[in-house]
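Input record (one chain):
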Amino acid sequence: MTPRLDLIGILTDDLAASLAFYRRLGLDIPAGAEQEPHVETVLPGGLRLAWDAAEVVGGTGPDAVPPPAGRRIALAFLCDGPADVDRQYAALVQAGYTGSKDPWDAFWGQRYAIVLDPDGNGVDLFAPLAPAQPGN
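The corresponding structure, as predicted from the sequence alone:
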């Protein structure tokens, strides 16, 4: 399977302000979402838009730091499984692109890796660690 764009992520210093802005543009973001460190909404067509509080990025690993202002939007590509995350990451790095974070099993239940596009933007590769169970 070819990875498919599944999520556009916005890293924000002020989650409440960012959510208020996008609500004014008509996005359906649940009331009270400002209290969460990670917020998602599904756009028409199934693409997800997500926000993460910048201070949460430091919790993803000992070497994680928020990117500078201006580089706060990431594209996340859903892969065909944990092994495919590893394959895609290795192929991109072998092709000369910069690996930002080698594949790892994230505490939120996904195999995850980050590679930089030619402009230095983070491109996330991910897949669930375990298949979804019926009813989840």
